[in-house]
Amino acid sequence: MISTPSTTVRISERLTPLHGIAAIDAQGSELPLDPSERRISAWSRFWRVTDPALRDAGIKGERIIAKYRLVACLLLFTLPLRAVMSHPELRQNWVGLAISSAGVMAGIIFMILTRRDAVRPWIGFAASLLDVTFVSTGLAAFVVLGAPQIAVNSRVIFEVYFLCLAVTCLRYDRRICLVTGLMIMLQYTLIVWWASTTLDSSPAWMDGTYGRFDFEDQVARLVLLGIATIVSLTIVLRVQQLRVLSVRDRLTGLMIRGYFDERLGEAFDRAQRTGDSLAVAMIDLDYFKSFNDRFGHAVGDLVLASVSRTIGRLVRSEDVVGRYGGEELIVMLPGLDRTKATERMERIRRAISQVRVELDSHPAVRMSPQPDLFSEDTTEFGRTVLTASIGVASWPDDKADTVEALVYRADSRLLSAKSTGRNRVVSSAGGTDEFAILSVS
Fold it and tell me: What is the DSSP letter of 306?
């Protein structure tokens, strides 16, 4: 049997500052659920992008990039094609045509990959690095063709590096931005070094049309690339912060209702296309209003934040938890049928009942089965403070035609759980009037 985690909340009689209980700080950074995670270095946290809101925004950005990449590759393809038709005897025209053709093929492949329901996290890295490599290949081709002065003094192809960096800002991923910038600087450094090895052997350097090799100019180009990388990274970090602040409740760290509804609608449409299961659970904390009335909203906020973090430890990375209103929470469970979703909600219900509260010198309090009443025990601290009622609905088990109908059924079963004694999970066992109830005394 899997053990249920226990959480102890210690509350001072003094007002608790918001920064002491909030799950999202003022800069939009998500605070660790586990205190042990606070010891992780900033560099380690930099490489950990676990927020589903950022992943979702990155996927949408990748789809936009894929469309524009394919259009840009098709337009660029016409340039070497026209050059080949005009001067088929020049090798550089054929090399340009080959590179642009490869770009079109890559654009089609990434267009197909991003149109799938499940977009792999490595696609952003692969697409960005491939874009950079295409630009570097174009510059390196001039060295191969005996025109190294064009490779290091290009006034057109080199600027495409900055476009590659700008595009990374649409991916909402600081890691991709940094890796792309470093890869650009590395590849261009290699091209400059390769071109410099031909100074004494290539007669092309005598042609001043594209300029001659100047070491200080190349260093200046690398410095500009570094500055552009820093600026792009700063933009991405700020956009990530704003994104988190716009879709997450600061107190609990859970998704706000508007964004949750958007994600749930997308998941429901995807489940209908693929035939996968999708479950929704509504969670309501029993007698929470009475708790607020007795101890104040500052204490209630702390308990609600602790409950939210407890739920966060028990859900999967693909699950989405939202704050539906007040003390009412909602959970989306993609890929789980009614039985598995009910079992997971039962674990969450047990975990909520294990949240302990200590109020300085006050005796511990246990929520009474009767509304607006409390029982006190002066001999023991840390008794269970609150319980939760949960309603579960699932597709296709409940045959809901719309996502609104699915949420309505989960809400109806939540009301059934509250009317039949609270502190339980209710899910349909067959028809709409028949229920399966899981509870403990």
Answer: H
pLDDT, average across residues 305-332: 87
- Residue 168 belongs to what H/E stretch? helix 160-168
Contacts of 332 (CB under 8 A, 6+ apart): 260, 263, 264, 267, 278, 279, 280, 319, 320, 321, 322
Q: What is the phi/psi pair of residue 277, to 5°? A: -80, 155
CA dist list (Å): 317 to 277, 320, 386, 390: 16, 8, 26, 21
403-419 and 257-274 helices cross at what angle (nearest 10)? 110
Q: How far is CA 149 from CA 143, 223, 368, 394, in A?
A: 8, 20, 83, 65
Measured torsion, CA atoms of residues 424, 430, 432, 438, in degrees rounded to the nearest 10: 0
What's the mean pLDDT in 354-362?
A: 62
Angle at 269 (CA atoms; ends 267, 270), nearest 5 degrees: 60
Q: Please report which residue ranges of 9-121 form alpha helices under DSSP H.
A: 42-46, 52-86, 91-114
pLDDT of residue 242: 85
Q: Is there a cis peptide before residue 88, judged by omega within 30 degrees of 0?
A: no
DSSP-based three-state secondary structure for 426: strand
Question: Looking at residues 65-75, what average pLDDT do you find?
Answer: 87
Annotated domain spans of the chain: 52-247, 252-439
The torsion of the CA quartet 315, 260, 56, 240, rounded to 10 degrees, works out to: -100
Q: Are 174 and 240 contacting, i.e. CB atoms less than 8 angstroms apart? A: yes
The tens digit of pLDDT for each residue in 139-184 reads 898 888 888 888 888 877 888 899 889 988 888 888 889 999 999 9
| Architecture of domain 252-439 in this structure | 2-Layer Sandwich (3.30)
Separation between Cα atoms, residue 138 and residue 133, nearest integer Å: 8
pLDDT digits (tens, 9 = 90+) for 108-139: 888 888 877 666 778 888 888 988 998 899 88
> What is the rounded average pLDDT of the residues 421-435?
65
